[in-house]
């Protein structure tokens, strides 16, 4: 199985004219700055339009709804993370052993989910992360499992590995006061029950 290609996220815009693409980037930059400053829950379409210097109608024509705008901002962040997975420095990117890449993937996926939790909630109804970004993550995990020689129902095992890193599960666990490092250590233990780590005795 070859290294998966960078997958376009659901709802990604079609090819645009250069000026239209510049305008879209300006709107996304304005939205991203407001999200970072005030939190996604506090960002309004009017505030983004004002910050970008455009009319609110232009913003709605571009993204259709507030949820659509939040999904586009999330899409941007997810695409940056995908690029690091595909071509960034090891161990997250190529050049490290598959086991080390899988552990780096889990850590960064956990951190990214927590970092963008507010944004994921606000964009949730658009399905952007649940469809496009999840498809990329699942493909990458299946690729790493194949590199590690995992047998059985690999797609289902990939789902089991990914599930704890998604926001609904993290929100439930956080109610029990799990610190991030404890959660990550537990996730590594879970993965180690599916994959035999290099140098470890085979599990029976």
TrEMBL record:
Query: Per its UniProt record, what Pfam families does this chain match?
Result: TetR_N
List the Gene3D superfamilies hit by this protein, alphabetically. Answer: Tetracycline Repressor, domain 2 (1.10.357.10)
Instruction: Give the HTH tetR-type domain ranges.
Output: 21-81
Keywords, in A-Z order:
DNA-binding
Record keyword Transmembrane helix present: no
* InterPro entries from the UniProt entry: Homeodomain-like_sf, HTH-type_TetR-like_transc_reg, HTH_TetR
Record-linked PROSITE patterns: HTH_TETR_2 (PS50977)
Q: Which PANTHER family match?
A: HTH-TYPE TRANSCRIPTIONAL REGULATOR RUTR, POSSIBLE TRANSCRIPTIONAL REGULATORY PROTEIN (PROBABLY TETR-FAMILY)
Protein's recorded name: TetR/AcrR family transcriptional regulator
Q: Which organism is it from?
A: Nocardioides hankookensis
List the lineage, top down.
Bacteria, Bacillati, Actinomycetota, Actinomycetes, Propionibacteriales
